[in-house]
Specification:
Elements: E1 5-10, H1 14-24, E2 30-36, H2 39-49, E3 53-56, H3 65-71, E4 79-84, H4 90-95, E5 100-103, H5 108-124, H6 128-141, E6 152-157, E7 160-165, E8 171-175, E9 178-183, E10 186-190, H7 194-200, E11 206-210, E12 213-216, E13 220-225, E14 231-235, E15 240-242, H8 248-255
Parallel strand pairs: 1-2, 1-3, 3-4, 4-5
Antiparallel strand pairs: 6-7, 8-9, 8-12, 9-10, 11-12, 13-14, 14-15
Helix pairs in contact: 2-3
Length: 259
Amino acid sequence: MSAPLRVLIVDDEPLARQRLKDLLAEAPDMALVGECRNGNEAIAAIGSERPDLVLLDVQMPGQDGFGVLRALPPGHAPAVIFVTAHREFAVQAFEANALDYLLKPFDRERFRTSLARARDRRRAAPSSLDSELLARLESLTLPKPAAPYVTRLVAKVGWRMRFLQVEDIDYLTAEGNYVAVHVGKQSHLTRETMAALEEKLDPKQFLRAHRSLIVRLDRIEEVEPLPPGEYVFILRDGTRLTSGRSYRAQVQRALELPT
């Protein structure tokens, strides 16, 4: 028989950790190697214990679940099942290659289904030696492809997720912990930072013109310079947006304005 899957539990709620431990105890091929109360503990435990599977909460003090994954060295992340009471992070979880997204409260059968996915993942995975050799060969022989820019964004609409085509977006503005994506007369909130969205959007199509503004270049119909080094963009529909003074140079480059 193969060795049991080594499992790490990460959740800031003691009762939630206890329930996961009780359910894991019913699976003889699963071995609990530790439990963590926050993201920082999880990062340290993953480095020291090298678990095969992490049952990971999303919202925790300090580093959240996605922050934990970002902090791990490339190629060394274990399989992850997100366990959370927040359904709005499901799309982001699967974009992070999570095995499953367990929404609290869940029953015993649903938990067993998640563990079955972890078992299937292990059976389908190549040996660690093969993976390491393949990674080394690829790093020596293949250039790393540039990350493709996204063609759609995901916005939260009540309990649902709405997909917004990038080609339909007029501009984006920061709204507290969210970014408002403006499409015509409608706006939709997405839980991403302006910096993250700037990385995902093609700079040939979108311009970061303010710390709180990204605008689609082909929507700009007129530009009015302001004395302090700012610019007013007048979009096709008449919307007026103002750039930030510190973004003056990149606005001039993107729009080929005189310096």
